[in-house]
Target: Regulatory protein RecX
Amino acid sequence: MTRRSDWPDPSPVSAEGPAAEAPPRSGEGRVAGPPGGGDPVARARGICLALLAGTPRTRRQLADALRRREIPEEAAAEVLDRFEEVGMIDDALFAEAWVESRHHGRGLARRALARELRTKGVAPAVVDEAVSRLEPEDEEETARALVARRLPATRGLPTPKRMRRLVGMLARKGYPEGLALRVVREALEREGQSTEEWEDHVPDIP
Model:
């Protein structure tokens, strides 16, 4: 492969984005035409720099963007390989940061986090490694905090309805059925409500 003198500087990438400067923007936030004219490698590089300037992205996300811009496959692969080599694309770091951010920011559990990472093209082994960093104890603690925040809004409702709403909320965030039922039941029982007779009224979590 021909060595190109105009590759991005391989200095470390900060949490805010790549070290290289993104192309200028014009109009309503749209990226101005990438430099390089008809050179597909230069065009691909400009597109990737612009996208990475906004937020970290996976290799698959960038590859999809290049495909939509009709960048030839060989040119796209050359750019993506080089960006990986200099650390501007790192799916493992992306996945680790995603798990940290989405768990603490949105309260998502491992199952939901894994699903999101897979849709972004992160390899299964990388997904497994990233979500495994989230300890079961941390997941349960977050589930309890979510229920505690939502609980006051359900007061005055019949017990079965409270259970369905709270368990459903945890289910949408990826919590296992057993954990969701246990956390909700304990929270309601601390308020003096009996839940045992109503557990059959709670739909199964897929």
About this structure: The first strand starts at residue 25 and ends at 26. The CA atoms of residues 58 and 135 lie 24 Å apart. The chain is about 60% helix and 0% strand.
